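User: Predict the complex with coenzyme A.
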Amino acid sequence: MGNIRIRLASKSDIAWLLHLELSTFTADSFSKRQIKYLITRAKSTVLIARQSGTPLAAAYMLWRKNSRLGRLYSIAVAPTARGLGIGASLLNECERQAAARERVGIYLEVRADNLSAISLYRKHGYDIVRELPEYYGDGTDGLKMLKMLAPGPELPA
Ligand SMILES: CC(C)(COP(=O)(O)OP(=O)(O)OC[C@H]1O[C@@H](n2cnc3c(N)ncnc32)[C@H](O)[C@@H]1OP(=O)(O)O)[C@@H](O)C(=O)NCCC(=O)NCCS
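Assistant: Here is the predicted structure with coenzyme A placed in the model:
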């Protein structure tokens, strides 16, 4: 899909981000308050992908102070815009953001039954590093996935 532009979200995007949440996640969706907090606080980055000015997808990254890893907290593409490569473009941008912050990798949690998201992550080089039994509120298992972006520090001889 051509002409996709990705930029940082601002407070004026809150209403659309909330709409995207509610149209995407039935459980565990972000509240308006959470979205506002994630946009305005320093330790997170919220990205929005647009085409011709129309917002189509969003990704949330968290940057914990003492961690060398970034966390992909959430990624969602509007239901009518899925399967067009937008999720993949956003994920690439998340990785660029992590590298710019000198994070050596990205981790994420995903529902074990979310096959399309797991496939997206696998294709981008994310490996399953841990199973998370009954991780979600409804009892669904989770998976922790990790992608290293750069070689780690050399071990002392
Ligand atoms: C998961 C999601 C972000 C993928 O975004 P997308 O823009 O639809 O994905 P893309 O078009 O960039 O596809 C990239 C890859 O994802 C995987 N994928 C995407 N849709 C898929 C589907 N319906 N079934 C299986 N794999 C799928 C494929 O590996 C695909 O690569 P391919 O096109 O070479 O086969 C999107 O489906 C979504 O928003 N889902 C609901 C929210 C969600 O589950 N977020 C993840 C929470 S952890």
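The mean pLDDT is 93.
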